[in-house]
Amino acid sequence: MLRASGLVAGYERGKRVLDGVNVDLPRGGVRGLAGPSGCGKSTLARVLALLQRPWAGTVELDGSPIRGFRHAASRRQRTAVGVVFQQPRPAVDPRMPLRRVLEEPLRASGERGVPERVAELTELTGLDGELLGRFPHEVSDGQLQRACLARAIALRPRYLICDEMTGMLDASTTAALVRVVDEQVRVEGTGVLAISHDESLLHAWAGDDVIRL
Amino acid sequence: MVELDSGRARPPGGGEWRSAARTRAGTARGGTGRARLRARASVVVLVSLVLAAVLVPMLSPAPGLVDYTSVRMPPEPGHPFGTDTSGRDLFVRSWAGLRISLLVAAVSTLVSTVLGSAVGAVAGSFGGWVDRLLMRVVDAINSVPHLLLGIVIVALYRGTVLAVVLSIGLTHWATVARVVRSEVLGLRNRPYIDAAISAGAGRWWVLRKHVLPAIVPQAVLSAVLLVPHAVFHETALSFLGLGLPPHLASIGNILGDGRAAVLLGAWWIVVFPALLLVATTLAVSGLAAGWRDRAVPTRRSELSL
């Protein structure tokens, strides 16, 4: 269980974006999180992915409280929660070909069998293998988001935060990526938090398990 | 009529065509046609200057050869640049001077760039009190005129090449540090840095794989721009008599020696060495300008967005 309680967070002093938010994310399922633009969905995603320290409140990962965020969190904690952002383009280093984008989590953690896992991830996410040598600016948003999803699940995280993952994509790519994530839930028992402003999409994906922010 | 014509020549949305064309044909292959030509011309000029500065003194008799029977000779076939007040051949002496000036400039630029990039990268990535402390040091160095500070450093170890190198190198890193730091600060909150952290990348990994590659173009660019500046500094120090020892012919030494001779009508003592200096400076900055538009991949990708 990834659990956040009493979260207060923001960027500018005195301007709270999240004010006392509680979220539970169990493993092995998809939970939807809906809310209008600007209500703090992305901030919540960043806190849950251990990328931003909240001003108050606690985050618990499988029963143990998180004390540090960003680099102050241990690698094991950080890689336990994968994250996919809404916009794939700023989320990849423009100097890295896609192959290196996919390899990054594996190499940074000193994993073995990197080429095999990259081939597996390419297959899994339906990323065109010929694009691996290309730079981000040479591929489409859809292909780039596939690469971002592949990177997020490369280390088989126990939880996955999809922050408007399909916001920029067409219907068929959206359906394809949702299938990939569902497959992760089924095979790896991942706990997925699907964040979107689009409630109909969330209901189609997560059924009745949709919470509002 | 005219408006119609110009309307047809322009793409919908004004300048978009141009930037798109630049992205594909221009930027990817090193700038627009004219900038590319300028960069190439600069390379040719710079390479020939450096080659001449290395070869001419090597293939000629010692540049320090004093000959009091032929002082202040105007340019003639035997002495294309004339001779100076001690009768030394200025052709050989000027090229030897350029060689030393360039060497001093290159080494001190290297010192500045490495030091500045390191300080800027550390200040930018660590933030907090480290950043504040380092930036106050930068402010302190920038608040004193560089030449003055350079003179102080040179005065401590008078008359050695190392002193001149250090006096230029240790006064110019602050500007590089500032540029690099702001670049790093801009990078720190990029989503791809977040993604890397989430993917388990440590601080060192992020610095090495994402931050350094991003600042290298900036650092190299400021280094290239620093070279002519350093040549001028060396020249200024030597001109003031504080730079290289007199037996080493640097451009500054030659100009310093020649400034009295100008009043005696020996214009060539100043003009030819100064021309070499100006040509070098122009070539280096032409190179930098041509290169600025070029393969900075971030810019390339941002253009194609």
TrEMBL record, chain A:
<keyword id="KW-0813">Transport</keyword>
<dbReference type="GO" id="GO:0016887">
    <property type="term" value="F:ATP hydrolysis activity"/>
</dbReference>
<dbReference type="InterPro" id="IPR003593">
    <property type="entry name" value="AAA+_ATPase"/>
</dbReference>
<keyword id="KW-0067">ATP-binding</keyword>
<dbReference type="InterPro" id="IPR027417">
    <property type="entry name" value="P-loop_NTPase"/>
</dbReference>
<dbReference type="GO" id="GO:0055085">
    <property type="term" value="P:transmembrane transport"/>
</dbReference>
<protein>
    <submittedName>
        <fullName>Peptide/nickel transport system ATP-binding protein</fullName>
    </submittedName>
</protein>
<dbReference type="InterPro" id="IPR003439">
    <property type="entry name" value="ABC_transporter-like_ATP-bd"/>
</dbReference>
<feature type="domain" description="ABC transporter">
    <location>
        <begin position="2"/>
        <end position="213"/>
    </location>
</feature>
<dbReference type="GO" id="GO:0005524">
    <property type="term" value="F:ATP binding"/>
</dbReference>
<comment type="similarity">
    <text>Belongs to the ABC transporter superfamily.</text>
</comment>
<keyword id="KW-0547">Nucleotide-binding</keyword>
<dbReference type="InterPro" id="IPR050319">
    <property type="entry name" value="ABC_transp_ATP-bind"/>
</dbReference>
<dbReference type="Pfam" id="PF00005">
    <property type="entry name" value="ABC_tran"/>
</dbReference>
Automatic annotation (TrEMBL), chain B:
<protein>
    <submittedName>
        <fullName>Peptide/nickel transport system permease protein</fullName>
    </submittedName>
</protein>
<keyword id="KW-1003">Cell membrane</keyword>
<feature type="domain" description="ABC transmembrane type-1">
    <location>
        <begin position="98"/>
        <end position="288"/>
    </location>
</feature>
<comment type="similarity">
    <text>Belongs to the binding-protein-dependent transport system permease family.</text>
</comment>
<dbReference type="InterPro" id="IPR035906">
    <property type="entry name" value="MetI-like_sf"/>
</dbReference>
<keyword id="KW-0812">Transmembrane</keyword>
<feature type="transmembrane region" description="Helical">
    <location>
        <begin position="266"/>
        <end position="291"/>
    </location>
</feature>
<feature type="transmembrane region" description="Helical">
    <location>
        <begin position="100"/>
        <end position="126"/>
    </location>
</feature>
<feature type="transmembrane region" description="Helical">
    <location>
        <begin position="39"/>
        <end position="59"/>
    </location>
</feature>
<dbReference type="GO" id="GO:0055085">
    <property type="term" value="P:transmembrane transport"/>
</dbReference>
<dbReference type="GO" id="GO:0005886">
    <property type="term" value="C:plasma membrane"/>
</dbReference>
<dbReference type="InterPro" id="IPR000515">
    <property type="entry name" value="MetI-like"/>
</dbReference>
<keyword id="KW-0813">Transport</keyword>
<keyword id="KW-1133">Transmembrane helix</keyword>
<dbReference type="Pfam" id="PF00528">
    <property type="entry name" value="BPD_transp_1"/>
</dbReference>
<keyword id="KW-0472">Membrane</keyword>
<feature type="region of interest" description="Disordered">
    <location>
        <begin position="1"/>
        <end position="33"/>
    </location>
</feature>
<dbReference type="InterPro" id="IPR050366">
    <property type="entry name" value="BP-dependent_transpt_permease"/>
</dbReference>
